[in-house]
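Practice problem 4.
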């Protein structure tokens, strides 16, 4: 932690408490309230963590007002343009861009861990065929701790490293297997001669009767989707991973917890929810009805793929994906489909509507990723598993950072209790 050079004074009930202030490399100052309860006997209240830093970190920085996302200082648009997913993984995990030799060694290590224990195939077969691939992934990733117990000792740096590589390498295999299982096709083994994104497309779309020829434009678009989803500082699923890990849980269990959290429609599930919404709208002439519903306070409907807790100007990931969407749709010859027309018109209307302007709601990363993934041939149920696959490196990097911190404590929030006062138990016959 940096030295505190400033402090804030909290006055209430006739007492004053001095609280140290920390200044980050960039971004708002942070008031340290860790000793507040001990000194003043009060808690702070911030259920959605809108004003609370839950940890210190050197991995990712977001300036939501300016629409900036940096990984280890590098802007996301430069990484999406000039780098590729595995290089970004190295950057997130180890803090610096790799040299050519380091990159080659890292790619080699990831590539040679892509197969999963053969016994895990039986584990997959225990699920119903119609299970959502996210449900299968939560189960299978959690079960990795039963298959790879030689890398669950979190006090051993070597085991932590092996677990990190295993998670990164096996996640595409697991996501592809969850997909294949759900459509009743045989599992496809990974290929070491393909890069990370191309190998994932191969495992999803090859069948024993015909090898899928991976188009380099699609592989590049897939790689970009992975890169753009790699990390996003202390979002809900990452905070879930950190909270699970703070108790000393093993890495596979922690990442399974992250997958479970990501599944929700307000988080990673939004890409599926967004495409479902576009399909429900169906045609351009029905858009005004849905815009009205989104504005209606008494209607729970929200425009999925719009808005963000942190970005209040633009989502820098969405800008890059919009360009990828155009490339992929042209390649697949679907630039003219109805769904896309609805998406483009919706975007145009929402960006010019007073309600959306005032509330700073604009398309987020999920608005475009679903359109691209559908054009590639993925069913909607695979959108969130692909997000989970890509975010694994972010979760693992944040987990590693937390475990290595000597100040790590179990995460244990307090509460504002509004329940009944102490009362005596009444026997059931007297109630
Ligand atoms: N459509 C219509 N109104 C909205 C929307 C929306 N998508 N999002 C927010 N609002 C309104 C909301 O009703 C509220 O209005 P008021 O101030 O009058 O009560 C105001 O905008 C602020 O909303 P909030 O829920 O307090 O904002 P939040 O920061 O808690 O929520 C959000 C952020 C992303 C959960 C929310 O914008 C949302 O539900 N969006 C749709 C789901 C979505 O696309 N999620 C993906 C996020 S990006 C991927 C990721 O990082 O996981």
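Answer key:
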């Amino acid at each position: 932690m940096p030295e505190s050079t400033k402090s804030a004074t909290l006055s209430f009930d006739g007492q004053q408490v001095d609280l140290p202030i920390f200044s980050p490399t960039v971004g708002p100052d942070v008031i340290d309230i860790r000793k507040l309860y001990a000194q003043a006997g009060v808690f702070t209240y911030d259920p959605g963590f809108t004003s609370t830093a839950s940890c210190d970190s050197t991995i990712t920085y977001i300036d939501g007002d300016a629409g900036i996302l940096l990984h280890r200082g590098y802007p996301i648009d430069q990484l999406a343009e000039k780098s590729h997913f595995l290089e970004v993984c190295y950057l997130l995990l180890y803090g610096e861009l790799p040299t050519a030799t380091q990159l080659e060694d890292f790619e080699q290590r990831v590539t040679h861990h892509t197969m999963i224990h053969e016994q895990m195939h039986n584990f997959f077969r225990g699920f119903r065929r119609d299970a959502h691939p996210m449900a299968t992934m939560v189960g299978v990733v959690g079960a990795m701790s039963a298959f790879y117990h030689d890398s669950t000792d979190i006090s051993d740096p070597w085991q932590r490293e092996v677990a990190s590589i295993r998670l990164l390498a096996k996640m595409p295999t697991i996501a592809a297997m969850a997909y294949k299982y759900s459509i009743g096709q045989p599992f496809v083994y990974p290929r070491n001669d393909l890069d990370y994104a191309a190998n994932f497309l191969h495992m999803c779309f090859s069948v024993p009767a015909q090898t899928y020829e991976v188009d380099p434009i699609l592989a590049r678009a897939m790689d970009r989707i992975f890169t753009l989803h790699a990390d996003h500082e202390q979002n809900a699923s990452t905070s879930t991973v950190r909270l699970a890990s703070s108790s000393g849980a093993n890495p596979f269990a922690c990442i399974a917890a992250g997958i479970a959290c990501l599944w929700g429609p307000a988080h990673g599930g939004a890409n599926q929810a967004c495409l479902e919404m576009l399909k429900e709208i169906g045609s351009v002439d029905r858009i005004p009805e849905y815009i009205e519903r989104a504005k209606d306070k008494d209607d729970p409907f929200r425009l999925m793929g719009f808005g963000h807790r942190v970005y209040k100007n633009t989502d820098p990931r969405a800008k890059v994906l919009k360009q990828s969407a155009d490339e992929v749709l042209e390649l697949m010859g679907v630039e003219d489909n109805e769904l896309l027309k609805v998406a483009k018109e919706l975007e145009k209307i929402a960006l010019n509507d007073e309600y959306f302007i005032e509330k700073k709601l604009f398309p987020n990363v999920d608005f475009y990723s679903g359109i691209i993934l559908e054009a590639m041939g993925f069913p909607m149920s695979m959108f969130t598993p692909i997000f989970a696959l890509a975010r694994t490196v972010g979760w693992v990097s944040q987990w590693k950072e937390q475990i290595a911190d000597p100040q790590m404590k179990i995460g244990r929030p307090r509460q504002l209790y509004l329940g009944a006062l102490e009362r005596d138990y009444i026997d059931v016959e007297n109630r």
